[in-house]
Structure formats: structure tokens, C-alpha cells
Fold this sequence. Notes:
57% of the residues lie in helices and 11% in strands. The chain is an alpha+beta fold. It has two domains: 19-169, CATH 3.30.1330.90; 174-424, 2-methylcitrate dehydratase PrpD (Orthogonal Bundle). Helix 7 (181-190) packs antiparallel against helix 12 (286-307), helix 8 (197-216) crosses helix 10 (235-251) and helix 12 runs antiparallel to helix 13 (315-330). The longest helix is centred in the C-terminal third of the chain and has 22 residues, at 286-307. Mean pLDDT is 91; it is low at 164-172.
Amino acid sequence: MNNTNQHSAYIDILHEELMPAMGCTEPIAIAYAAAMAKKVLDEMPERIVIEASDNIIKNVKSVVVPNTGNLKGIEAAAVAGIIAGDADKVLEVISVVNDDERASIKEYLSSKDISVKASQSGLIFDITIHAYCGDSSVTVQISHFHTNITRIVKNNEVLRMNSDCDEVNMSTKTDRSLMTVHGIIDFAESVDLAKVKEALQQQIDFNYTIATEGIKNSWGANVGSVLLNTWGNDIKNRARAFAAAGSDARMSGCELPVMIVSGSGNQGLTASVPVIEYAKELKVDDDKLYRALLISNLVTIHQKTGIGRLSAYCGAISAGVGAGAGIAWLNGGGYKEIAHTIVNALAIVSGIVCDGAKPSCAGKIASAVEAGILGYEMYKNGQQFYGGDGIVVKGVENTIKNIGRLGKIGMRETDQEIIKMMLEN
């Protein structure tokens, strides 16, 4: 692939991955499917059946659905989409909800027939909403990633069907296999910023705003405030504190949007906020910040490609490593510094589990960002982990490949045990 085509592919990947969302993306995907079902049905459903894969159940169980008055769970997410959702807004589907609608959501939950079933599709990411009113019915299915509507059926008539979809072919439009750390750095340093500036500026504006809200006010476990109160205002501490604070706010129902990365608002926050904080400390211009964010976002996406959208492997780790790469570049690092930062950080924190979306995500984000920064500082001080040290192998691409194998295959049984534990509570 020539340089022009490669740059075009990286631009497409960024625009596919960076998008605005309000709230944790799994319950929002449920709300999106439900809003679409209501739109197609064209009347208020009397009964709803929700089918969800285990990983969806895991990521929706403990998180507050925004704009619902602190309601949690699959049923609340679906009903919010039915009552107040605007399907045309996609992952901002319930960004505008008034008091009457909030009251109607609670009334619907208490008075209507709503049931949740485990999906039998065998897919890791699968949501199906069945909505019924009298003799009319609509089915809407989202599979593989948060905005991918694969099936719409109304009164037994198929309106949309992607029967050959799979995670590799349908979860993204652009081939991720071309991605390399070397290629990412080349792209970030040479791309015409006008082609990516709008999305990156929106990421800066949205993600830093919710991070600041998380620091200023009480949200979740207040991990960011604890970090600042305990270890002070040093840049390394601020970087992880503000990222954690943004997560605490969104996990607890804060009604501010974020720009997601790899289908996750937490990953979007982790990949961006520490880099923004370092850029402020170093007093760099906007263009340098944009290029550092390109490195952070794309290194995050590169790692997640092998792991998949949902896994027992905590996605914030990938984003913390990405942030470390962006911070290394901001400090003058090139390919060698960035590659070693990635390998060092992965050696430290790979294996932290994902047990659903909830306040403890903020603590994991803090650890991931710390590892990203430590990975860079180790290399600056002449220290590194070597091939043969555990899952680290020689070469950054080989280590990233091992991480994909660990997250997708090695932690499959771990994922099932985590889900069993969560459903027992």
C-alpha cells in the first residue's frame, strides 16, 4: 500500500472510531436499538423482550443510564430509548430527556411487560429488541459493535438484514491489519491536520470537560480527587487523576458527552485526557497536541484490533498504553522511544480484567495511565523489559500480537467466570 493510500486508511479508521456518545456505550447501544424499534413500530410498545449476550449484560448491570434519574440496568436503558430516544442521534440517543419523560420511563418500568433473556446467538456482542403493540411487532438487532444494526423485521417482513456479518468484516469498514506503530507515527507526523482536526478538537472539548466535571464535583468513587488529595498536583498525577475523574462521572450518569475510541468512552477518555494534560504542562501548540492525540488514539485502536470490542481484558489498559505513547512523542520521542514505552507498559499492566462498567473503571484507568507514563520513564532511564520476560517478545508488533491473543483467546474462560460471578449477585 502506497503512502497516500495508507494515510487515507488511517483517516478513515479515525473517523470510524472517534464518535460522540453520552453514557456507557453498552446501555446506550440498547437504548439505540430500542429507539429504532419504536421508530419502526410507529406506536408505543405494550411489551418488550430484550435479548443480550453475556458481555452486554456484564457491561450494563452496574452502570447508571444517563438522563434517567439514576436508573441502572438493561430494562432502564431499553425503556429510556423507547420513551425518550431519538434513533437519528445514534449514541447520543438519550441526550435530551425532559422531566415528564423521566417520569414516564419510571412508570413504564413499573407497569409494562419487560423481560430480559440471554442471547443464544453465540456472539460476544449482541443485542436484540423485540417490541410489541397489539398485532404489530418489530425486531431490531445490533451485533459486533455499538452502531451496527444487522437486522430489522416488522410484522415478519425483513426490512434490513446483514446475514454474512462477522466481527472481522463488519465491525469496521477499513482494514486494521495495515496498522503498525511505525506507520502510525509516520502518519501522525505528516498528515494534513485539516483532515482530522474537527474530530480531534471535539475529543479535546468533550473529554476534558467531563474530566473537569469529575474533579470539581462528587461522582462515583471520586478516584481523581483522591489521587490529587493524596499525591498532589504533579503532572504525572494530574494526568491519571483527570482521566479517572472523567470515567467516574460518566459511569455515574453524568449527562455530558464523550468522544469514544474503540467503542468505549472510558478508552476515549484514557487515550486523550492524559495527553491533553501533558500538552498543557509542556505549553505546546494545538498542532502538536493534535499529532500526539493521533498517536495515542491509533496505538489504542491498534492494540484493540486483535483483542476485539468486548473481552475480559480491560480496554482501559490499551488506552493507557496509547496515552503513554502520545506522551512520549510530546516529549520528543520517536519510534524507538514509543515502541519501548508500549512494550514496557504492556508488560506492567496486561491482564487487568474487565468486570463490567462501574466506578472501579476509574481506578483501572489510573493504573493504566501510570503504566503508560512509567513505560516511557523507564526507557528514558535506560531500562526496559526484554523478549522472553513473560508475554513480552522481541519487537513491539510481536508483543501487541501476543496481547491480542491473550485478550481474545486466553481470557475467554476468565470472561465466562466473571459473568457467572456478576449474575450470582
